[in-house]
Design goal:
Shape: elongated
Bound molecules: phosphoenolpyruvate, magnesium ion
Distance between the termini: 49 Å
Strand content: 15-25%
Length: 880
């Protein structure tokens, strides 16, 4: 039997997302539930993949299955595609597994041509409607399928409206819209050199192929990258019988969420337009009415809508985002999906659904994307500064948060300002999907048009970017790059501030502060903590970072980079003296000057962490990073050391390395200069002894040796540490347990982990270096190379951000498997950047690490990712 590429809606269900895409699976499920759904069929995601990989062709088998499904649909609808008397019209829409709002293409009103449009006009007795549909179809088909830009049609349309003296589309008569469709066809012919295609079946196949190709468009690439959606998923195509919201004042179309997508409140949030088609709402072309108004305009439709949307929420056990159309007083649902929401809304909805008895805590924990928690850590306005500021206007509070920055008028400008390290606000008439990179780069987004469900609002909420939309008082001058609001004119580069929670706009730069964490967040994270077995530590170099991390739920420190402590104030001078010392004695004197600072830093960290585990790493980076650069720096150092600038420069040159990342760093420094390791070990142990005594606790320091590739290196450094510790404890009269372990960040350490484990009491995977060295790709230069690799689709994601399970991960797994038989109680963690990335956290859980360690602000993300890894682990629950 041949492969099934096409499913009628009545053949699928919600569990078939991988095959039918989210939209197709939900349309099938709603059909099963008996909701009023215009019927249709879905071409599978697999067909998309085969199309895109197979020379961009539909196979005969696919076409035959599409034909059969169409015949079936014609039977259900009682009308035929292209019929001159009573034509069936369909929509052709994309639908990937994960929703990608506005990223891919859609064609509506397909099936119209010069003849069937007349049939439609006669059959409905509504020529205005028929020609409105036709002119929309010509424009969408030309834009999406053929690539004739929509703006060319819009310009012609505006010219025509001006000529006949109307402002809004709905004032045009049928005759006039017929003229518009003639003008559009002429434009098409002029652009393409051929007549606008008249054969409906061909129109349909061409449109389906255009949707498949849209999976390959640049904005879809950007969106997938931002949302971790793999390329090989592909998109399905849904071909669905059209129902019409543009048939007059008893018709309309809208979008609604069963709960408030910005706050999570349990109240329907929706908007609709009378006498319009779906794209008018989503594109934000006209500003719509709130859903509550539907209760007055069409009470029976409103009641049915509320009843059915409630049914959908109960069925999916989640907040639903629905599109609906009313055709001459009859309600239809066009789609439903779990709605996108802000992080505070996600938490509130998850907690509320548990309290309402709809879902379990485990189900709640699976509902929030860990990366979204990042939004909770975004800034809010400083209250005093906000109170002192005066708002100059107000739009819709489309996506919460606070933003202040320089006004930019295009996505490119926003990107450029952000790349220059400055904050910006993207101000647009309305946003389109092409703006996505500029939206991501901006602190905030302000639009003149569009409602709460416009593209700008939906995308901004997904990204956690503050957005105020639909501020229609703004007079925009895109050409001059200025806008005027409440008598103030703002030019490019002027500062404004936006409050995404109230919709208020301010004509000044208002100071922002870190946000407070809500009660729902605490409740939710406590559930995640009950579930996970993987522990979460933090990378922290200062007592302040350590305290922030504890507030975010860190259970210990997985990495203190001691080198970061040497950049402050006059410490750098002392450190430079140490580096440029010519003899051991000179170096020891310089080190003695540094030791009190080190000890003080460590005491501060222990005081913050108390008995929580703390891993401190010995000096790691290449010494040239600390070298003086400017003449003034050399002169200051010369004055301090009594050497000449010349002498110091000669020494500095002698330390220069061609490839410092693979040079004199890590444990190699301790091999060359054992006195450095000795000083650090002394400071670590003394600090631990003193704080243990002062606080009446037992601190167990974990001393970590970086960049080990050979067990003898570790043994060498460990001997220094152990000897020093013994001396310190004898002098202080207090015994303390301490651990010595190593980072696994050189492939050879992973390959010989059984040997390394004979000396190491713990391993911490330094996946920044391990990735660098496994790929042979310099950390310092990777950015530019990787962006080419990602553009060329060689890597789908950046392996420095998300752990490469196949290569780097295989080394990690091998190291774990080799180490455990040698030392069954070896403690295993990760402290590379990957420790805060959800997919990498999952991998760490799978290979049986004890903990992950990440920067303080990512600790909540890692806690949730660890809980989700536990819940999706098919093996028996394993407690570490
Ligand atoms: C690592 O290499 O993963 C690591 C944590 O060390 P650093 O980034 O300091 O080299
Ligand atoms: Mg490293």
């Amino acid at each position: 039997m041949s492969k099934k590429y096409v499913y009628m809606f009545s053949e699928g269900n919600a569990s078939m997302k991988n095959t039918l895409g989210g939209k197709g699976a939900n349309l099938a499920e709603m059909t099963l539930l008996g909701l009023p759904i215009p019927q249709g069929f879905t071409i599978t995601t697999e067909a998309c993949t085969e199309y895109n990989q197979g020379g961009k062709k539909l196979t005969d088998d696919m076409i035959a299955q599409i034909d059969a499904a169409l015949a079936n649909l014609e039977e259900i609808a009682g009308k035929k595609l292209g019929d001159p008397e009573n034509p069936l019209l369909v929509s052709v829409r994309s639908g990937a597994r994960a929703s990608m709002p506005g990223m891919m293409d859609t064609v509506l009103n397909l099936g119209l041509n010069d003849i069937s449009v007349e049939g439609l006009a006669k059959k409905t007795g509504n020529a205005r409607f028929a020609y409105d549909s036709y002119r929309r179809f010509i424009m969408m088909f030309s834009d999406v399928v053929i690539g004739v830009s929509k703006s060319k049609f819009e310009r012609k349309f505006d010219e025509y409206k001006e000529k006949v003296g109307v402002e809004v589309d709905t004032e045009l008569s049928g005759e006039q819209l017929k003229e518009v469709s003639e003008i559009f066809k002429a434009l098409y012919k002029e652009d393409q050199g051929v007549d606008f295609p008249q054969e409906p079946k061909q129109q349909m196949l061409e449109s389906a192929m255009a949707v498949f190709r849209s999976w390959d468009n640049p904005r879809a690439f950007v969106y997938r990258r931002m949302n971790d959606i793999p390329y090989e998923w592909g998109t399905a195509v849904n071909i669905q019988m059209m129902v019409f919201g543009n048939m007059g004042d008893n018709s309309g179309t809208g979008v609604a969420f069963t709960r408030n997508a910005a706050t999570g409140d349990k109240a329907m949030l929706g908007e609709y337009l009378i006498n319009a088609q779906g794209e008018d709402v989503v594109a934000g072309v006209r500003t719509p009415l709130p859903i509550a108004r539907l209760a007055e305009d069409m009470p029976a439709v409103y009641d049915e809508f509320m009843m059915l949307s409630n049914k959908l929420e109960n069925h999916y056990k989640d907040m639903q985002d629905m599109e609906f159309t009313v055709e001459e007083g009859t309600l239809y649902f066009l789609q439903t999906r779990n709605g996108k929401r802000t992080a505070p809304a996600a938490l509130k909805i998850a907690v509320d659904l548990v309290e309402e008895g709809m879902i379990t805590k485990e189900e709640a924990v699976m509902k929030v994307d860990p990366r979204q928690l990042d939004q909770l850590l975004h800034p809010a306005f400083d209250q005093a500064a906000l109170d002192a500021a005066e708002s100059i206007g107000k739009g819709l509070p489309a996506s919460p948060g606070a933003a202040a920055g320089k006004v930019c008028f295009t996505a490119e400008d926003a990107k450029a300002v952000a790349e220059a390290g400055e904050r910006c606000i993207l101000v647009r008439l309305e946003t389109s999907p092409e703006d996505i990179e500029g939206m991501a780069a901006a602190q905030g987004i302000l639009t003149v048009r569009g409602g709460m469900t416009s593209h700008a609002a939906v995308v901004a909420r997904g990204m956690g970017t503050c957005c105020v939309s639909g501020c229609e008082e703004i007079k925009m001058n895109e050409e001059e790059k200025t806008f005027t609001l409440a008598g103030h004119t703002f030019a490019e580069g002027d500062y404004i501030s936006l409050d995404g929670s109230t919709g208020k706009i301010y004509g000044e730069d208002i100071h922002t502060v870190d946000p407070e964490i809500s009660g729902d967040f605490g409740t939710f994270m406590a559930w995640a903590d009950e579930i996970r077995s993987l522990k979460v530590r933090t990378n922290a170099d200062t007592p302040h970072d350590a305290r922030v991390a504890i507030d975010f739920g860190a259970e210990g420190i997985g990495l203190t980079r001691t080198e970061h402590m040497f950049f402050e104030g006059d410490r750098i001078m002392k450190f430079r003296k140490m580096i440029l010392a010519e003899t051991v004695e000179e170096r020891e004197v310089a080190l003695a000057g540094i030791e009190p600072f080190q000890k003080q830093d460590f005491k501060g960290i222990y005081e913050a962490m108390l008995e929580r585990p703390v891993t401190i790493r010995l000096l790691d980076p290449p010494l040239h990073e600390f070298m003086p650069h400017t003449d003034e720096e050399f002169e200051a150092l010369a004055a301090e050391t009594g050497k000449t600038v010349e002498e110091l420069k000669v020494k500095a040159t002698s330390l220069h390395e061609l490839n410092p990342m693979m040079g004199h760093r890590g444990c190699r420094l301790a091999v060359s200069y054992p006195e450095i390791a000795k000083m650090q070990a002394k400071a670590i142990i003394e600090a631990a002894v003193e704080v243990s005594i002062e606080k009446g606790i037992e601190i167990v320091p974990e001393i970590m040796v970086p960049l080990v590739g050979e067990v003898k290196e570790l043994r060498f450094v460990k001997n220094i540490v152990v000897e020093t510790a013994k001396e310190v404890m004898a002098a202080k009269g207090k015994e303390l347990k301490f651990l010595v372990g190593t980072m696994i960040e050189i492939p050879r350490a992973a390959l010989t982990a059984d040997q390394v484990a004979t000396e190491a009491e713990f391993f911490s995977f330094g996946t920044n270096d391990l990735t660098q060295m496994t790929f042979g790709l310099s950390r310092d230069d990777a950015g530019r190379i990787l962006s080419d690799y990602i553009d060329a689709n060689i890597y789908e994601v950046d392996p420095t951000a998300r752990l490469d399970r196949t290569g780097v991960g295989a080394l990690m797994q091998m190291a774990v498997e080799k180490a455990l038989p040698v030392r069954s109680d070896i403690h295993l963690g990760i402290c590379g950047e990957h420790g805060g990335d959800p997919s990498s956290v999952e991998f760490c859980h799978i290979i049986g690490l004890d903990y992950v360690s990440c920067s303080p602000y990512r600790v909540p993300i890692a806690r949730l990712a660890a809980a989700q890894a536990q819940l999706t682990d098919p093996r028996e629950t394993r407690k570490h």
